[in-house]
């Protein structure tokens, strides 16, 4: 018997139903969907709206699943022999059930490209392990997106669309007391700001795996997705291991610290742009200044390639429990400055000159920015 596909207007799951059916009950959320051959315009609009929100909820529920996506029906769930049910899948709890700690972790290698990276997937795996073991994040509250060749769930590939949807998931139903983390290891870049809301005239951006086709994610978009909605009492930490990432969250204040540890906050607020939070605190720890580049290397770990920021961040926090933001920043910078990627292991002015001329010394400085000013030496770093 012929059949047709209809979408549940409540959860967004695509189901196969007999052609003569006008009403069906979803096997996942048990919601009732009415199908009428002649639907008034206002009802069409109502169903259209609920279909859209259903798809969004369906995406967020699906992305938490460990089961691979069924590709036999264009990426949607298929039907089993009963016709009205998708393939077996547990009904996941609502967002707040993940608790007060949630994280999105992205690592992109850009396989097959001339600009492919070596350490970004290692960074993502290490960051997830670190959050679980060191700060007690529940494993199922960490959404990891990588272009690992073994990844089969298409919703966990770090495309532009998936990263933006993951950011929305991270902030969904956030409340006072929540601790959120966004980690990105991949390429970053700059381009001319078209809306004129940047002091230096440039937008910073991260590069999804499909950025050549779908575009980059600009700092304005990141700010809108995970900074602006942050409610009072909630805190977000972004760790961005990418080139040109100093102000990639477009936060209001940048910590300018010299090698002696003296610092001041530089006001980055732009008169025509409101890029603050909704009362919460957002902090960004990024790989380098907006004008600098960042690398991945095995020089730090001695074996596996990693991003310089991710490795130095994890090592510093593990080695110095209870450290302050100021100590974290200065220790990471010292660690990176002391790392050589070449073959001149000597100290002194001659070796230093060779390192600079041959590009062997790591010359990137991690940056700290925040939505509000605070004392970096009395404020303890905690996630």
Automatic annotation (TrEMBL):
GO terms for molecular function: cysteine-type endopeptidase activity. InterPro entries: Caspase-like_dom_sf (IPR029030), Metacaspase (IPR050452), Pept_C14_caspase (IPR011600). GO terms for cellular component: cytoplasm. GO terms for biological process: proteolysis. Residues 101-373 form the Peptidase C14 caspase domain. Belongs to the peptidase C14B family. PANTHER family: METACASPASE-3, METACASPASE-4. This is Peptidase C14 caspase domain-containing protein. It comes from Vigna unguiculata.
């Amino acid at each position: 018997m012929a059949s047709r596909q209809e979408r549940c207007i409540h959860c967004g799951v695509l189901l196969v139903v007999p052609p003569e059916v006008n009403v069906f009950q979803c096997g996942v959320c048990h919601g009732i969907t009415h199908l009428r051959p002649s639907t008034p315009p206002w009802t069409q609009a109502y169903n259209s709206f609920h279909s859209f929100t259903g798809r969004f909820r369906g995406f967020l529920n699906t992305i938490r699943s460990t089961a691979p996506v069924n590709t036999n029906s264009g990426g949607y769930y298929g039907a089993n022999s009963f016709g009205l049910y998708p393939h077996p899948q547990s009904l996941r709890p609502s967002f707040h059930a993940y608790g007060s700690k949630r994280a999105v972790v992205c690592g992109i290698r850009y396989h097959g490209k001339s600009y492919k990276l070596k350490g970004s997937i290692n960074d993502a795996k290490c960051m997830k392990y670190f959050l679980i073991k060191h700060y007690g994040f529940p494993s199922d509250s960490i959404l990891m997106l990588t272009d690992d060749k073994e990844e089969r769930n298409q919703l966990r590939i770090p495309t532009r669309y998936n990263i933006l949807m993951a950011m929305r998931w991270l902030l969904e139903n956030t409340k006072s007391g929540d601790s959120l983390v966004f980690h990105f290891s991949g390429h970053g870049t700059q381009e001319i700001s078209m809306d004129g809301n940047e002091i230096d005239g440039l937008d910073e951006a991260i590069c999804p795996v499909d950025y050549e086709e779908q575009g980059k994610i600009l700092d304005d978009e990141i700010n809108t997705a995970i900074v602006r909605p942050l409610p009072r009492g909630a805190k977000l930490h972004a760790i961005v291991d990418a080139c040109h990432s100093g102000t990639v969250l477009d936060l209001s204040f940048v910590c300018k610290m010299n090698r002696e540890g003296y610092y001041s906050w530089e006001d980055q607020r732009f008169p025509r742009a409101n890029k603050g939070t909704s009362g919460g605190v957002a902090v960004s720890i990024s790989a380098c200044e907006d004008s600098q580049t960042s690398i991945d290397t095995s020089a730090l770990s001695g074996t596996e390639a990693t991003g310089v920021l991710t490795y130095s961040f994890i090592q510093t926090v593990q080695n110095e429990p209870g450290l302050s933001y100021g100590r974290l920043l200065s220790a990471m910078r010292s660690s990176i400055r002391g790392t050589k990627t070449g073959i001149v292991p000597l100290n002194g002015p001659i070796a230093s000159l060779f390192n600079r001329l041959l590009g062997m010394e790591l010359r990137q400085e991690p940056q700290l920015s925040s939505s509000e000013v605070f004392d970096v030496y009395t404020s303890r770093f905690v996630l």
